[in-house]
Design a protein that fits this description.
Number of helices: 3
Structural class: alpha+beta
Number of strands: 10
Largest sheet: 10 strands, antiparallel
Amino acid sequence: MSPSVMAGEKTLKKVQAEKKVLEEKVEELDWKVRLLEQRLEQVLGTTERAKGTVAPTTKSEQVEALDQKVRILERRWEIDQEQATARAKDAPVFTAGREGFSLKSADGSYQLRIRGYLQGDGRFFADDKERATTDTFLLRRVRPILEGTVSKYFDFRIMTDFGGGTATVQDAYLDARPWSWAKLRVGKYKPPVGLERLQSGSELLFVERGLPTNLVPNRNVGAQLHGELFDGAFSYALGAFNGVADGGSGDLENNDSKEFAGRRFARSFKSSSIEALQ
């Protein structure tokens, strides 16, 4: 066999190998294009295809055209993912659980929480012939609670009570908290006097509070400065109020005098590793 024939065969084999590589690349790029078009169709609802373009004639032109289309579609897919991530970061967050329902902005600066509790009693007397006492069921507390945060540093709470067949505003106040050690509360709430009174009605250990609690105010209208220091190891509250009768609540004042109340807590072992000391 002459050298020229051998050279021709080598050239033919080389061309055939290159053609096979190009065909494989065309198939791979074509598969990528279809996959990316399917993804974009799922996101956008439609697939935008090139219009008015001249179909490439040679394999190399097909490879170049498909490669360019792949890069365009991949970039569009990346942009879609970036936009979806940005929308997720800015989207409000809704939660529901044993603490109630809440809706808050992505950064937590604005929040709204809805919850409440209901307590019922049954009062039955075994022998009440001498005293005409009625055996009855009753709804002791029916309290929807609306709480929230505005502009990150302002909290509010509104709690009404429909127990006993009446409608009463128990809590209605605003808390300004620029710092953890200095917060200002204004409105109607529990003064910092009776320790047991400061406990929520849903957190009581017994069915009723102790009799000494009847000697302290229930709810009062006023302004109070309070806060925590040393990671909560020390807390204080000091306020001025309209004044109410023992065990009572009030919305208005009938004289010019005011009451002052304060309380401080010191928990020296709050950061202790022993839970009983905390």
